[in-house]
Amino acid sequence: MGGNRELAERFIATLEARDWTAWAGLLHPDVIYEIPQSRERIRGRDRYLQFNQEYPGDWHLRPKVTIADERHGVVWFEWRLDGRVDDAMAFFEFADGLITRVTDFWPEPYEPPAGREHLVERSLRASAGICAESQDMSRQGFVWLATRSGAHRNGAPRCA
Amino acid sequence: MGGNRELAERFIATLEARDWTAWAGLLHPDVIYEIPQSRERIRGRDRYLQFNQEYPGDWHLRPKVTIADERHGVVWFEWRLDGRVDDAMAFFEFADGLITRVTDFWPEPYEPPAGREHLVERSLRASAGICAESQDMSRQGFVWLATRSGAHRNGAPRCA
To answer: Could you tell me which of A62, A58, A49, A54 has the C-alpha nearest to residue A19?
Structure first.
């Protein structure tokens, strides 16, 4: 399913490049775009193109994981806007070498509920240069606190 | 990659069944579980099992889309708890026929920003039995409002 995987990869790459002609060329004319979190839907390539062209801000996208099969695909990507960095994901449906449906999710940060501190570690968003030797940080931009060891109570990230 | 796709499918099915032995059997002993939104991480199968066994409430999971390749997979699923129904997704990394990493996302509903009403339709969460003929509702539990036609101003779902 290299073709569908490539469609998913090019979807993000052409958005990031603001290459609107190439981006629209990946989409079926009757593509459906949905954002379940806000209960929004856009019908058709022309309106979907306009939506993205009008979307405010100097946003940037970086793909992290792309998976596709003969019918479905997903890109888990990082988006950046005004100094904020978060994860998002776009699910795709494919037909005849085009994208026929896109469903986006934009998860927001939240504080965990109490009662599971005995099992979890928490991370801090890392500042540049802190704990640069940490594999985890290079992977995700996170510095992990060793909740179980109690190191977090010192307020000091453990970089081991 | 039927094996990895089946791992992803069984991950959700055995969780839903509270079949803890079967569920734990899918996981590498050193599996890493991460929730980026809350910056939480759990190391190891035993703690991850305990986390799920202790998770409060009569939660239920229903898979919607599963995709997998030789290294990565995802299940987009619906979760239900106390009358609430929302989407979530679990990304997987595989090695040697086991799940070595799970990363969950739990997107929350939000209101869309102003300025794109000229392009989008909004949906209402449908009550049982309303507009049952709607394909969209049967697909997602949503009734779509025709924002562009102005029908939403009547406050009445359009079921055509």
So the answer is: A49
Cβ-based contacts under 8 A for chains A and B: 131
The rounded percent of chain A whose pLDDT value lies above 90 is 74
Query: Contact at 8 Å (CB) between B43 and B28?
Result: no
Give domain status of residue A122, yes or no: yes
Tally of domains within chain A: 1
Nearest to A51 among B74, B116, B121 (CB): B116
Q: Do β-strands A27-35 and B98-105 pair in parallel, antiparallel, or remain unpaired?
A: unpaired
What are A77-134's pLDDT values in tens digits? 999 999 999 999 999 999 999 999 999 999 999 999 899 999 999 987 644 333 433 4
Does A49 map to a domain? yes
Residues from chain B contacting residue A35 (CB–CB below 8 Å): 112
Q: What global pTM score does this model have? A: 0.82
Amino acid, single-letter form, for residue A13: A
3-state secondary structure of B8: helix
Say how many CA atoms lie within 13 Å of B78 toward its Cβ.
10
CB contact under 8 A, B120 and A50: no
Task: State chain B's maximal CA–CA distance in angstroms.
Answer: 57
Q: Given an 8 Å threshold on Cβ–Cβ distance, is A121 in contact with B40? A: yes
* In a domain? residue A158: no
Tell me the chain A residues in contact with residue B108 when contact means C-beta distances shorter than 8 Å: 37, 107-108, 110
Q: Which CATH number fits the domain that encloses residue A104?
A: 3.10.450.50
pLDDT digits (tens, 9 = 90+) for B111-121: 998 999 999 99
CB-CB neighbors (< 8 A) of A108 in chain B: 37, 107-108, 110
Range of the domain at B116: 2-147
**What's the ipTM?**
0.82
The answer as to whether B160 is a domain residue is no
